Amino acid sequence: MPFSALAGTGSLFQASLTRLGGDVFAAPLVVTADQFRFIAVQQMQAMGITPQAVLIEPAPRDTGPAVLAAALHLAQSDPDALMLVAPSDHVIPDAALFAQIVAAAIPAAAAGQIVAFGITPERAETGYGYLELAAPLQDDPQITPLVSFVEKPDAARAAKMLAEGRYLWNAGLFLFTVKDILAAYALYAPDMVEAVQTAVDDASHDLGFLRLAPEPWGRAPAISIDYAVMEQADNLSVAPYAGRWSDLGDWTAVWRETETDGLALSGPAHAIDCTDTLLRSENDGQVIVGIGLQDIIAVAMPDAVLISHKSRTQDVKQAVALLKARGACQAESFPKDHRPWGWFESLATGDRFQVKRIVVDAGAALSLQSHHHRAEHWIVVQGTARVTCDGTVKLLTENESIYIPLGSTHRLENPGKLPVVLIEVQTGSYLGEDDIIRYEDIYARD
Length: 446
Known about the structure:
It catalyses: alpha-D-mannose 1-phosphate + GTP + H(+) = GDP-alpha-D-mannose + diphosphate. It contains 11 helices and 29 strands. The chain is of the alpha+beta class.
């Protein structure tokens, strides 16, 4: 979700970068998964943002190890630095107010407090955790001590907490100094520190990324920072935030943020006699139509369709687990595969063939490579491509094509100033992405 435009023109990730781009903030340090590394960098480049670093997680281990890795990396240059942990799937429209609240929390964090940001609740929400305060907030809320973290409540308890007025939503936003959070990890999660420290120490540089070492990273427990540290620490304070905020962590939250008169429609989507429903198509050529629906989420992706009652969208992880158990590729891969030179997507697959759309950025080039098991046919549909095949170099323009025989050494380059788009037809006994032998690569990949 963070790299999609769910609520606005840019992605949630880009909206987060904009919000954290004022004078209060330093250049971002990004922690992301391997499959998102190129799209994260491409979206930052589109905004003219140069990050401090991009740390690549070898496998998802939740926020506990991720925050620790970022803190350990920052400690190498400035252990006294202030560190703001900010998830990239939040909607916070008032960036100026948010920056003001962060600035107000700096003295407490600099004095040794771990500051959690709490959101004034708008409803008795059961999908969020809460922060318990000692007393209801005043008209001019200040940084206040935290009494306890509260797990996601049932509806009755959520309503009671809302009425009491001394509970805030836990936004998962935290501010602290690097040295203070490292001290907390050392006290409350020492086993995690050993594993993540080794993963950082043994990290390798890869195309401008810092790839954490996979073996020690795999030994770190998969646990949130709340469970690992926050719920045990005794130096916590809360910075109340009364502005508009939404965690787009599920499709019901997206519906709530984008609905008009109860309907949220995106892409080629149409509703007939539907109420309180989200209909979304991620493919311009795939129309979705809802008839007589109420409280339904329906999302059509190029490779899968999700249909859920609004009350169950936080259970999508069950669907992912089911797909993984059945070996479905949709559980662990995405329709678009981003690479340092651009991206590609699969349009059709069958026995011994695959059709892809490939987009190569201006000035970019694929590696000089060959394949053991497949031949390829390239048809340029936009732009001009420079193609090398067994030593012969040829320029292809729109509506021109070339055949790449099995075993031929070949490369595709974009010498122009506009993207090149081509359709690739693969045929052969094995069509996996690992059937690549690279001879030369400007991105220094193996």
